């Protein structure tokens, strides 16, 4: 605040000051909202200038491919974070879905051949697992991180039990066709991921459910007073998150043609970080599909650029960590108190 | 005025053994604006909660359109035609104006699960036009200013209730003018008159008497959960209103006034032109050794916020705090305690006591530095200190190891008092020191306050009632709208009357 403005504010009445402050905060909020986009532009510019082949079609496709799985995970996770909760069962859920689908389609260890039904079963079970997490969290009143972590453990263990120690190799022609197929040079897996993301965006922006999630995350009491069914909405969110985690697991299995429990290993936190980079908040109420997309893109571009620069893997992690802290510090809302009053 | 739309008969509310609202008879007529006034805790908000469906009455009956009225929730009340605009804005900032207006009511606009936002926006536009607002309904609430948000909130409530009860709805406005400028308040009046002309009944709560006199038809005065007077606004006399708002003064004996000390000339704490933008401005006062300084003011007047600054919870934007002539700055409560200021917080259960700890730990928690022996906490010292205070403050308990959560409100409060005294802090801030404490324990706390000043402590008190504030204090400062509006000397036997003081509060 410069001195002139400070003097001006000094002369106001308290309620004028309050209004001025609220408006200032709204302005800051606007700046903060565009910060991720600016960051993305800067990242892209730096990438393009420092690496000649950054903008090559091959590298663009590569970036899109790298962001595929995170994008699918981000669909459900965005909803969960909007609520201000967390879902730590995603990794276990992914591993389980991948292992199960490998077990159900043509593979090297049994004579199953459920084909597309195998995929559906795996996804439906993921959805059911998410529903259980949501149910235990809301009805059982258990903190989301604890209950989802516990369920994640169960799923990881159950995944290993499916293949009894030796990961199953997938031999299904459909899986092989999808994992190798490309349209205009873009892998099918990427196309599927983007389609899933678009469906998620439609749910978020064009359904009453999507709006209810925003309302609950921003102001649960207000949402309750308008007659929104809080419990049911939350359970649906976890069901959706379980569903997209399972889809991510199946896609991961297609990509690697292998079903094992660690398909999901270290997949969740990068996505949480990406969503926050895009302007989402772990305390809920902020973010959206566009923000999530921008966040995942920033995160992937950063990783891609560091690889192109030939940065050492360990150094890469250090740099990523530092950039994330800086970016999140810049975008996070520091003085929420005055806005809510 | 038309027919009676809404009526309460002997309505009351109790929480446990505590009666917060008692025997309220109120009639709301078609086309009537009712003004509700009273001090903090007079029961205005409680009555609103009962009518709007947030809570259910413990006694009495309510009638709406001649039929018994029961509301199980806010939405249930809305559906019957009764809606409330809440003091804290309840809009969701991240959603559009239209989405907020129809939040929870999207069904009308959805097809195959997808909501038709365009159609909703069209209806929202109409709802906004009803309150004369030209606003793009697709705009997010976070992008519109505070005054417009208030109007959106009114448009939302109006839309719900008129859908259910065209022309005979009840609209409750709980301090709708707090964030509005003078022009915006005039605009609000226009809207209230419009709702009134349409035949609705309106209840209007405000801390500003001029607003009440300007817009209402009838004034109900509440005091300590009871209805003390009803006047047609045209016949209301300001002095009588003030008189009805305050209760009878309790005897000086109750506040142990005989032991009220005369403050010395030594200034312990000085507050110099302190401001917290948007909350209070230009607050200056001096606190002397042995003085009890009372801060009086309604909710939101800034009195409590000044105390929050003094204990380091919030940093002021302007001005200085001096302790014994030296300027101090606090970033947190620890620094404030080190400088010699500690408080008995308002909310004992959430801010005052550490429920899982014993009485002795609760007493010594602010002075663990002095409880050490050879670098470690000494159980013996802690116990001796606790035993000393249990005796001195008359804490009824089975022993120093008992958990504080087992104690009654009054005894728990005495533990907190022992803590602030043991801390060695010179300046003590007592924020509603007798809230939720029974009469007997109250007097013991008053006696403790007298002993504290006699021992040279300087005390700032925010009273639970105005009576208490005047009874305890040697000086009183009155706050209104974030400014000091008046100050009074309160020597023994020459205390100002509550009416005089309340005049500066509203």
UniProtKB/TrEMBL annotation, chain A:
Q: Does the keyword Transmembrane apply?
A: yes
Protein's membrane topology: Multi-pass membrane protein
Supply the alphabetized keyword list.
Cell membrane, Membrane, Transmembrane, Transmembrane helix
State if Cell membrane is listed as a keyword: yes
Q: Where is the signal peptide?
A: none
Q: Which InterPro entries match?
A: ABC_transp_permease
Q: Where in the cell is it found?
A: Cell membrane
Superkingdom? Bacteria
Q: Which residues cross the membrane?
A: 34-51, 63-83, 90-108, 114-136, 143-163, 183-204
Name the Pfam families for this protein: BPD_transp_2
Name-wise, this protein is ABC transporter permease
Native source organism of the sequence: Blautia ammoniilytica
From TrEMBL, chain B:
Q: Which top-level group of life is the source organism from? A: Bacteria
Q: Which GO terms describe its molecular function?
A: ATP binding
Signal sequence extent: none
> InterPro entries from the xrefs?
AAA+_ATPase, ABC_carbohydrate_import_ATPase, ABC_transporter-like_ATP-bd, ABC_transporter-like_CS, P-loop_NTPase
Q: Has the keyword Nucleotide-binding been applied to this entry?
A: yes
Keyword list (alphabetical) reads: ATP-binding, Cell membrane, Membrane, Nucleotide-binding, Repeat, Sugar transport, Translocase, Transport
Pfam families, sorted: ABC_tran
Q: Is Secreted set as a keyword in this record?
A: no
Matches recorded under SUPFAM superfamilies: P-loop containing nucleoside triphosphate hydrolases
Q: Where's the ABC transporter domain?
A: 6-249, 262-506
Q: What is this protein called?
A: Sugar ABC transporter ATP-binding protein
| Organism encoding this protein | Blautia ammoniilytica
**What CDD domains does the record tag this protein with?**
ABC_Carb_Monos_I (cd03216), ABC_Carb_Monos_II (cd03215)
